[in-house]
Amino acid sequence: MLSISFGKELKGGCAPEGGRSFRLEVDIPVQEGSFLGILGPSGSGKTTLLRGLAGLYRPDSGCISLGDHTWYDSSSRVFVPPRLRPVGLVFQDYALFPNMTVYGNVQYATGDHARTMELLELVRMDAQARHFPRELSGGQRQRTALARALGRKPLLLLLDEPLSALDEELRLSLREELRRIQRETGVTAILVSHSRDDVFRLCDEVIELEAGQVRKPGRAGPVG
Amino acid sequence: MTFDPVPFWVSTQLGLWVTAILLITCFPLAWVLAKSPGGWVPWIESTTSLPLVLSPTVLGFYLLLLLSPQGPVGDFFMRTFHIRLAFSFPGIVLAGCVSSLPFMLTALKTGIQSVPTQLLEASYTLGKGRFTTIARVVLPNMKGALVAGIVNTFAHTIGEFGVVLMIGGSIPGVTKVVSIAVYERVESLNFGAAHVYAAILVILSYSGMLLLNLVQRREARR
Q1: What is the pLDDT, as a whole number, of residue A149?
Q2: Which domain holds residue B151?
Q3: pTM score of the predicted model
Q4: Between helices B191-221 and B143-158, what is the axis angle to 10°?
Q5: Can you tell me the ipTM of this complex?
Q6: Shortest Cα distance, chain A CAs vs residue B7, angstroms
Q7: Which of B115, B125, B136, B219 should one mutate to test binding to chain A, selecting the residue with the greatest count of A CBs within 10 A?
């Protein structure tokens, strides 16, 4: 069970939406192996929450733990840095290393040739292994970023609007692929998005964030 | 016309030493300046930029006061390492480091700032520490800035005149660098030799600038 209790004051310039201050307050359990979707408009605190789970942002209060491992606890001042958390993060703009090939990007995470090739085959990027990120399409970059995020065999996969930069056709096909890969690997995944369609079609559970507060916790169902 | 190649050897050694020392010492400082939001940053940057705007003779004068055996730095080096800084090669290396500091520091800071923070964050979430991240992500993605820092620092150092003359004098084979050799040839009306020294310095500097521009052009295309 992933337990997330997260409080963070977002003020002035730190607040994502036009400098408006609000408190991000999230308290949710996530079943292991499930796919949680977090919906919300821009500036609702979705990315801040994701970055907090990855350890890139330190909450003000709360506790984040996965199974027996505590990653953050404000009361006992525990803060596990990102490099020690078994987390894979797919950034919104993918953040691929421009100086490395597709193979190099994934191998950087795995440190192992066989595992790298296995992941490239999983995301169907083995044919482009020698290409640099600048030579890839949006969809290929997304797949590479996904393979890289899975490189450390993470217990938690975080996806920050991974489909938002893609055109409609590609988005639909990659959405299916994302679901397939999550099922095949069995990794607990959290997707943040402002697209209801993406979230409801991909995820088992959905919550909605509005100005830092969970508004509509619920189970995924048919769209529309 | 007499041509003595030794000043070139002294200048080259000086340039290599200063560039190597500044490359290593400036990186941590550039990192702090690039990443820190602290209000003290402009104060440090103004201090480290001073050699750009100060007259070399003014800089050289204050450095001479610091590096002479009676000065605090000169006295420390003499007592601790038994090294005399004034009118010696180590002295002009130290003076060259001060004089060329802004060239290396500015280039490295700009380079570090040019690497998107998300790349660093991606590296951290992939289980890498700061050292690996710097070596494998930051440095390869700021090649242009690294080359700029190295070329500008080396070119500025081998062309250094005022500060070197103030600290090192003109001791043949020790502190007499090319620019001082040019000055002395002109003073003795030996324009032929002055031309040779000056032309080689121009060609060296031009080659460095050309290399820098070619690298930066290639990096911009990536």
Answers
A1: 93
A2: 6-32+55-221
A3: 0.84
A4: 170
A5: 0.87
A6: 40
A7: B125
